[in-house]
What does this fold into?
Amino acid sequence: MTGIPLLIAAGILGYLLGSIPFGLLLTRVAGLGDIRRIGSGNIGATNVLRTGRKGLAALTLALDLAKGTATVVIVQSWGTEAGLAAAGCAVIGHMFPVWLGFRGGKGVATALGVLIPLAWPVALVTALVWLATALISHYSSLAALTAAIAGAGMAAFVSDKMTAWLIAGIALLIILRHHENIRRLIAGTESRISLVKS
It folds into this structure.
C-alpha cells in the first residue's frame, strides 16, 4: 500500500487509537460513574482530577499520552508522512470520538504523546511550560493554551516544515477546543486545579 490509500489507512488507525476514552473507562471501572456527568463533563485527566482521585487522574493522563505516542511509533514505520497523518488523526480522535457522539476531550495529553516521537525537544519544552503554568496559575486550561502556543512556536524553528505545520495545526485545534475555557478565564470564573497535596 502506498500513496493516498496508505495515508488514509494511517489516518484511520490513528483516529481509532486516539478515540479510546481512557478517562471514561477508568472512572467507570473505579465505580465513579460517568465522568461526563462530573465537573466540566470532559473525559480527560483534568476532569478526572476533579473526582479527588489523583492516582486515577495520573493514570488517565499517562494512557492518553501513551496512545498518542504508540500511534506514531507504530505508523512511522510506514513512512514519515503516514506517521504525521496518524499523529494528527490521533488527536482528532481524542477530541471527537465516534463512540461518544464526537464529544471527547481537549486533546492536550494525546498531543503531547504524539510530540514525543515526532519532536521530543518540542515535547519536553511543551510539558515544562504546561507544568510551570499550571503550578503558578492553578489553571489547567491556561497551561494547555500556553503550552500549545509555546510548542508550535518552537517547532517552527527546530522541526522540518511538515512536522512544524502539523504541530501548529494541533495547537490551533487545542485552542479552539478551549473556547469556553478562554471565555471563563476572561470572566474570572474558570475552575482551578491542585497538582499537589494540600
